[in-house]
Amino acid sequence: MDGDTLGFAGRILLALVLGGLIGLEREVDGHPAGFRTHITVAVGAALFGIISVDGFDRFVAERASSNIQIDVTRVASQVVVGIGFLGAGTIVKNRGAVRGLTTAASLWVAAAVGLAVGITAYGAAVVTTVAVLVSLTVLRIPQRKLLQYFSARRRTVSISLEKEADVGALVSALHGLPGVEVKSLSVRSVDSTPIVEADLKPGPGVSLDRDLAELADRDDVQGIEVS
């Protein structure tokens, strides 16, 4: 591949920073595809872009100079599409929780690294590998610290009600908690006992523990579990 390895590294690192900023916002807001997933996808996409733009210059020829025209980019494009099916197989959804997104993204970027090595883009492949490894390992520490700063007080509560309780009244009470945002809510029944599960995010200065204690004192509430 013709070009400056430092230039490739700059593109990949910029993709790391920009993808991380987007992923941080998503993770703070509670979405399953968060900080490291977005970094991995952004870095992989950057490498695919480098390969598409700079990887096949040696095969460019004037149409009049040959009776045979070869589209050498077709294989690369099929790798980009085909790896999605493999990544989808690693994503599992279980009772509202999504697992395997980062693994799917790492598989996708690994395909980009392999393709880069295959066309002798060794510098871009090495830099991408280092960037992804930093994302998946070293960045776990600042990720936890940032999450603690922005949204450490977010709680998931499971509220068991009396069998004849008015579920709608409790749901209204949850939505009426001052300064508390209900991110998600579901209702299920276990042995005829209604159970309300909610993901709550208190605003600055709001004591969620106090609000939950007041809910626990209601006559229609059997108990509250917090995670």
How is this structure best described in words?
- The protein has 227 residues and is α+β, with helices and mostly antiparallel strands.
- The protein has two domains: 5-149, no CATH class; 153-226, Alpha-Beta Plaits, CATH 3.30.70.260.
- 55% of the residues lie in helices and 18% in strands.
- It is built from eight helices and six strands, in the order H-H-H-E-E-H-H-H-E-H-E-E-H-E.
- The protein has helices at 5-28, 35-54, 73-88, 101-118, 122-138, 140-151, 167-175, 208-216, and strands at 92-94, 97-99, 155-161, 180-190, 193-202, 221-226.
- The strands form two sheets. It has a four-stranded antiparallel sheet, with helices on one face.
- Strand 4 (180-190) and strand 5 (193-202) form a beta hairpin.
- Helix 1 packs antiparallel against helix 2, helix 1 packs parallel to helix 5 (122-138) and helix 2 runs antiparallel to helix 5 (122-138).
- The chain is elongated, with a radius of gyration of 25 Å.
- The model has no long low-confidence stretch (mean pLDDT 78).
